[in-house]
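dumping this here so i dont lose it
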């Protein structure tokens, strides 16, 4: 017997093939806010935390940290008398990623209900949606949905006569990639420069305005209503993997049909590429791919049968990241592509720590020389050395380690292309073709 889409696609079943915003009346008719009503009548804050912990839900923003554990750490590290805040990280700035955009534009009430449930679990008094500044449609739709939710009594004081008080506000950012890092986001929300903070103390103990704060991603929070309504066993059954649930995943780049789909964790990258993205463009062969945005390591075409989940991709040297894969065609030059990627990361560095501030522009300069066939012997080795200097544990936050991940993997997979940029210069000098501008 074929299962209903509501039983297999907890995040997107309400869309029902029609990509128009689901407003409060339609959302309510499709089980909307039933999880909140159930919670306020029969469940405690600890019940919700326990449900989310047992469900195995991991953060969908890229890091993949267990959500329930994150909540437990916040509750344990703060007293009930202290104000607590919940922040939804909607600053979707990762190139090649557009999954949260879909949820905010078409299913704003699902996100709002997820935030209210999470706030109840954490006993937070106030929440903020920190939205990427140029998501204009999402901003408009979220504001409308917030008004509808307040009018129906789902936000504000004494929600549904339960004694629970919580309000939620939308804040648009100024457009900085670094705001994806939770402490930089908190600084920006406070009106400060978007630099990461020293840790410890962690936001769970000292966050927004010095109060305990939890920061969760849009997709993460959008999963909470279905977990509360349908339970742990059901949520785990959705996956083909050790990791629980479904995930918004997709392909962009040199594919016939770029897009994002809700799929079970554990599906292979090949299945997504061939069955959903309809394969590579005509006349184009897959050269390499990134599993979750430009900040993840490149993988070879022979690794397409890897399961798209947190554990499997980590085993082969990459990360699931945001789950939105990028396909690179065989005609694309890797040095040129890496120059584009590293230029982005260099510009988006906050400049707080020396390795990132100085190292990324240095990498860009070397890649520019290589791309112009002006590379020097030793440039590749220098790039590898810089990758080590900017690796995990060497910089203030994860920005630089994310930036060098695609570079280091590309050198390993396509070293000959980097060497050719040096060889081409040698050939020009040998043939008296080397021009010096006076």
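and the seq i came up w/
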């Amino acid at each position: 017997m074929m299962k209903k889409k509501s039983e297999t696609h907890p995040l997107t079943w309400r869309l029902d093939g029609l990509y128009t915003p689901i407003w409060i009346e339609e959302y309510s008719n499709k089980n909307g806010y039933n999880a909140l009503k159930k919670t306020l009548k029969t469940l405690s804050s600890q019940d919700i935390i326990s449900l989310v912990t047992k469900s195995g839900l991991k953060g969908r923003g890229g890091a993949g940290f267990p959500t329930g554990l994150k909540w437990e750490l916040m509750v344990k590290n703060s007293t009930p008398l202290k104000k607590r805040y919940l922040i939804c990280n909607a600053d979707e700035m990762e190139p090649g990623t557009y999954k949260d955009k879909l949820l905010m534009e078409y299913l704003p009430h699902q996100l709002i209900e997820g935030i209210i449930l999470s706030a109840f679990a954490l006993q937070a008094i106030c929440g903020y949606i920190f939205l990427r500044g140029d998501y204009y449609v999402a901003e408009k739709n979220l504001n409308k949905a917030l008004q509808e939710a307040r009018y129906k009594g789902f936000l504000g004081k004494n929600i549904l006569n339960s004694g629970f008080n919580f309000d939620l506000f939308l804040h648009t950012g100024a457009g900085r990639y670094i705001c994806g890092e939770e402490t930089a986001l908190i600084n920006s929300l406070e009106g400060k420069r978007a630099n990461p903070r020293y840790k410890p103390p962690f936001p769970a103990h000292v966050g927004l305005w010095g109060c305990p704060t939890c920061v969760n991603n849009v997709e993460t929070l959008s999963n909470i209503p279905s977990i509360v309504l349908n339970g742990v066993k059901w949520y785990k059954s959705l996956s083909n993997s050790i990791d629980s649930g479904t995930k918004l995943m997709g392909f962009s780049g040199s594919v016939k049909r770029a897009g994002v789909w809700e799929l079970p964790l554990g599906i292979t990258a090949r299945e997504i590429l061939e069955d959903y993205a309809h394969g590579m463009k005509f006349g184009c062969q897959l050269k390499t791919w990134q599993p979750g945005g430009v900040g993840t390591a490149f993988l070879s075409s022979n690794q397409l049968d890897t399961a798209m989940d947190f554990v499997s991709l980590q085993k082969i040297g990459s990360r699931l990241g945001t789950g939105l894969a990028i396909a690179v065609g065989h005609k694309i030059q890797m040095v040129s592509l890496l120059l584009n990627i590293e230029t982005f990361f260099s510009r988006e560095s906050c400049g707080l720590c020396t390795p990132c501030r100085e190292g990324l522009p240095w990498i860009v300069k070397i890649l520019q020389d290589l791309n112009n066939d002006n590379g020097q012997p030793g440039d590749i080795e220098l790039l590898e050395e810089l990758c080590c200097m900017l690796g995990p544990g060497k910089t203030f936050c994860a920005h630089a380690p994310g930036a060098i991940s695609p570079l280091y993997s590309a050198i390993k997979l396509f070293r000959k292309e980097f060497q050719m940029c040096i060889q081409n210069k040698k050939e020009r000098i040998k043939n008296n073709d080397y021009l010096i501008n006076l």
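Residues 35 and 389 are 48 Å apart (CA to CA).
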